[in-house]
Amino acid sequence: MSLASLSLFTNKSYGIIGGTVLCSLLLMTALYLYATSLDRIILENGTLILKKKIGQISIPEAELVDVQKLGFSNLAMTYGSKGVFGFIGSTMDDSVCLVKDRNNMIQIKTLRQNYVISAEKRDELIRDIKDRYDLI
Prior knowledge:
Layout (H helix, E strand, L loop, with lengths): L1 H9 L4 H21 L2 E7 L2 E6 L3 E5 L3 E7 L6 E7 L2 E6 L4 E4 L5 E6 L3 E5 L3 H11 L4
Parallel strand pairs: 7-9
Antiparallel strand pairs: 1-2, 2-3, 4-8, 5-6, 6-7, 8-9
Helix pairs in contact: 1-2
């Protein structure tokens, strides 16, 4: 990332201003992707929290519909990142995607939005979510 930024900044064909603008865009994009990547999943009384590096998504228990295991997928994205800090963005079925490991994906269905996330111990997480929030 730093080599790409340095290359854009010092490339004479872009000029100083063009190199600075392109370098700034690249760094801001990397910062955005880092900030929106999933840090941890918190199960609280009445709320499932998807904690990102900066910010969080709170899902009230009343909105939870289903939680299920997903198999390996290539995740067709409409926008977002396919590899830098994970698969972050929106998928073709309009799910919010916060996936780091495509082998351990979980789909969380709510009344308003669907989420695709990954977890190291996904079977245990699915069981805990279903038990805590009384999902079938």
